[in-house]
Amino acid sequence: PEDKSEKNSPTLAAHRDSLLRFQRQRHRSQAPSANDIEWRQFRRDHLTALLRRLSVEVALVRPRARLRVECLGGTRGGYPIEWETTMAYSQALQDWRLWLREGLLDTAVLTKYFETQINPRDWTEWSNFLRINSSRRSVLPLIASKYNQASEVLTLLHRLQKSAPASSLSGVGL
Fold first, then answer.
1. What pairs with residue 71 in β-bridges?
2. What is the pLDDT of residues 92-105, one digit of tens each?
3. Extended strands (E) in the chain
4. What Å distances lie between residue 48 and 28, 111, 138, CA to CA?
5. Per-residue confidence band for 174, with pLDDT thresholds at 50, 70 and 90
6. Which of 1, 87, 97, 99 sits at a 20 to 30 Å CA gap from 73?
7. Residue 72 and residue 55: Cα distance in Å, rounded?
């Protein structure tokens, strides 16, 4: 069971056994703070280890199956960015760039919501960021069609088509 005595604390939202394992491995007597860098890396590493085991098991049980995971996208603003500052990496503890590079995923379905009225260049920059960081694996960016008018969604799709070759983009989700 999870300890939820403090709201929005990544430390206390963790399973008790995970906290104990962290304290034992790091020779600590107290629980880490929510912003503890070692604690966040510990949890990120364990999430990646779980995905490694999952990808091996899926391949053994169903060799033709494809592993697709929905992940958080990048960050607000332009690209390029420092990966470690993205919400996906720093808060959700998802290192999908590593997962793609190691071949742990067949497809990363990446959610990032764009409001074309606020910053129309974000979609193009985001698409280029995905191509650069996909490690030649399949990525599927999602367009939040509920935030944009139909004409704006079509504009985003047109920009994607006109930008650099979409070799790693396996489509677009709406």
1. 110
2. 899 998 999 999 99
3. 68-72, 107-111, 138-142
4. 23, 19, 18
5. low
6. 1
7. 19
Question: What gap in Å lies between CA 132 and CA 112, rounded to an integer?
Answer: 16
Q: Evaluate the CA torsion angle 102, 108, 113, 114 in order and state its sign.
A: positive
In this prediction, residue 76 has a pLDDT band, given cuts at 50, 70 and 90, of low
C-alpha closest to that of 18 among 2, 36, 35, 5: 2
8's torsion region: left (phi>0), alpha (psi -120 to 50) or beta?
A: left
**Given the structure tokens 């939202």, which residue do they identify?**
13
DSSP 3-state of 57: helix
Which amino acid is it at 2? Answer: E
Give the separation between CA 159 and CA 123, rounded to whole angstroms. 8
- The amino acid that residue 8 corresponds to is N
108, two tokens: 């990363």
Residue 137 is encoded by which pair of tokens?
């694996």
Please name the amino acid found at residue 126: W
pLDDT of residue 91: 85
Instruction: Compute how many other C-beta atoms are within 10 angstroms of the C-beta atom of residue 135.
Output: 16
Q: Round to whole Å and give the CA distance between 163 and 155.
A: 12
